[in-house]
What does this fold into?
Amino acid sequence: MININQSATGTANGKIILMGEHSVVYGEPAIAIPFPATRVEVAVTSVEGPVQLDCVYYQGNLSAAPKQLANLIAVVESTLNELNQDLKNFKLTIDSTVPVERGMGSSAAVAIAMVRALFAYFSTNLTNDVLLALANVSETIAHGNPSGLDAAMTSGKQPLYYIKGEPFVPFPLSMSAYLIVADTGLKGQTRDAVASIAQLNQENPTLTMDAIHQLGALAKQAKLAIEANIPVTLGLVMDAAHEKLSFLGVSNDTLNYLVTTARTNGALGAKLTGGGRGGCMIALAADKDTATCISAALLAAGAVNTWTHPLGDD
Ligand code: MEV
It folds into this structure.
């Protein structure tokens, strides 16, 4: 018989895609890093009656939660199904510092933390395969056709070189450079952006797949630049990726403006990160002082928040 705890928690972190968003959906490689500056914690506590949900969007019975939380309800139901438990007698409290819909993997991070918390609450061992499969139930509702990258990144602690459907390759990303992440303050539209590239691919497969393959080639070049510790090359490759992503229609004026601002303030390169059409952009700086200057310029240009992340020893 399964032992039920009085309370349990599960955690996950945000993620940043360095290279390969969107093209990863089509089997090209991506490089992504966990972003522990942003984090989700889900707490499960014992209460009598229907399952309760407490998050910034909603407090009340899970069954009456708004449609925008459909992915969350689905992951709770699938997890309980996997655990052979009934949907009753507990409360879920979600606490998150991962900005929502900003390309930092918030939906995947909540799903990962949720599955972990529920397995801990029902004292059941959780394998990585089951964790990712359950999180991808939520991701499929949130994104339509997820590559699995967000779930992998938000559950892990190591950078990954990721190819859809292949085993994860931990990627020792250590480079004498700094990454600045800036939030446009606009909700990203990953689902629409993924769908619009699929549509473009139906209308003009040659041009679309050419851009996708070039993004894949750029991700491979980025891997080489990181392994050889040549930030200047990584910056150029990031710039080229932003152009390709813009060509595919997943950037917007605000992202382009912040990318240009970063470049004119000393960035070695800059690009959007994640689903695009809002959300976040990233810039590469050669040293900490330049990173501070880029960060200040991005805030002055309208970014609502920035984070600076050393890619090697700080
Ligand atoms: C979203 O963070 C990343 C995308 O490549 C979608 C995916 O990989 O599922 C746009």
The chain has a mean pLDDT of 95.
